[in-house]
Amino acid sequence: RRLEDERKAFARVDSDREKAVKLLKEAKENLLRVTKEAAETAEKCHSREAEISKQTERYEELARYLENDKEQLEQERASLRKERASLDSLNKKIQLDSQRL
After folding, report:
1. How do residues 18-42 score in pLDDT, each as one tens digit?
2. CA distance 14 to 6
3. How far is CA 76 from CA 11, 51, 84, 85, in A?
């Protein structure tokens, strides 16, 4: 009788051990899966970060280009204003000369 009880106890312990081993295997598989997913997500983030950095550099380059264009346009406007003033002055002289004739 006692031998039978010990066999049942060992069987239960063995069964519990097998369940624990199975749970540990599942936990390890889950850990590996989550670790892999985390690494993939991190890689995607790094890739996106690099892409955003490139876009930012491009936008900054465009901003500098536009700023240079703006300055050039302002210089051209000032030059055109001077030319217009000069032409207006010549036009007045021509009108005065025409009136004298």
Report:
1. 999 999 999 999 999 999 999 999 9
2. 12
3. 96, 37, 12, 14
